[in-house]
Design brief:
Distance between the termini: 39 Å
Number of domains: 3
Oligomer: single chain
Shape: elongated
Radius of gyration: 27 Å
Strand content: 25-35%
CATH architecture of the largest domain: 3-Layer(aba) Sandwich
Number of strands: 24
Structural class: alpha/beta
CATH topology of the largest domain: Rossmann fold
CATH class of the largest domain: Alpha Beta
CATH superfamily of the largest domain: P-loop containing nucleotide triphosphate hydrolases
Largest sheet: 9 strands, mixed
Strand order of the largest sheet: 11-10-12-13-9-16-17-18-19
Amino acid sequence: MSIDQDLEKLLTNLPFFIQEHLSNHNNKEKLIEIVMDLGRRPEARFTSGPEYISQKIISWQDLDYTTKRISKFTNENRAGIERTLHRISCIRNRQFLINGLTCRVGRAIFGTISIIRDLLELQQSILILGKPGVGKTTIIREIARVLSDELEKRVIIVDTSNEIAGDSDLPHSGIGRARRMQVARTELQHQIMIEAVENHMPEVIIIDEIGTELEALTARTIAEKGVQLVGTTHGNCLQNLIKNPSLADLIGGIQYVTLSDEEAKRRGTQKSILERKAYPAFQVAIEINEQNSWTIHEDIKVSIDLLLRGNFTINQIRQSLIDDKISIKYQQFQTHLLFKNSNRTRNSTALISNNWASLNQLKNAKIENLKTKNLNIYSYSLSNNLLKEVIQKMGLRFVITKEIKNANLIIGLKKHLRQNFKLQRLAKQKAIPIYMINQNSIYQIVKLLNFITVEL
């Protein structure tokens, strides 16, 4: 992973006493921003914490020195430096005079998205969520470079605040061959998004900070035209989008549905429930928890449905380790607290998921059969060699048996298991739970075994 930060180009525009101190600072590679407020000491904020960088008090002359050496401030009180990614934001008094500056260090980090490189090659729309300052813009800048240079896609960046490609008519090299469309005013972002599709024939459109209902609706319109989207929005997790009416269109929209008495009883829910209205504009969601730890929802549709049912969801956690290796784990998260009025109960042997894995309904199955360290698995319509390899690499104490009578559980392909009524009857008689997956793949087997170990 390499970093291109052009820090000297920012420091040369600051007062000399600040420039001198930071140029020789031992920790300048971890500098996040520099704060200059009138009548206060200048402050540098590092990833490790803030510190004052001079005993001198910031004066009007210091602020004027910096503002005259950078580009003009926009209506959003932001400015930049030619051919860099640095951002300078100003604070004004009631007479609109600048009495404070926040100088944010912009960095192009090459290699930061190696953790999700496989997801980019799937050609699915990706939504990135995270709180401000967590690095969403840096991530989508690198995504733009990889998609345009390495995967040779036609990429258009809708750069509303010039943070992705820098404050200049010449975009920063960090975006690779991707093209950049600048937005004159924030409220026009949705119009530029549509213009990009209609005029420039992109295969991928990249949008930073989707924040209004119009922008969410436009993203949905673009997705329906078959264009791949990569976008960011503020929020720690998918639950935040469910509770945000203006952005709900990104995940398919949410509506109240009234069930019949019979259907409500069958589902074990109240009669009035929340459901997803349509297909989401994005297929994949990435929650940026920390710089090196991301939560992946590989199918937003399934994750949202599980969240709305107040059940639970299994999330994929990817971490970038020190030796450049990537760790992928699966964790089960309870989500029933999302809806306080939900009175539904969950049968631990009756989870049904339409996409990645499902558990056959066995009302009479005894879960006590699973309370053992050495589980005997009967595999039906799955490759035993593949299953053994996955079990061995995961370090599980599962044994594959050829005799159903010795099995604690049965796993296999859904389409074959549903047709074998004899096996279903035998499993019911012996109270053996049946777990089903859609495809004979390492990915789905790993997910299923992780789910089983969590259940235990």
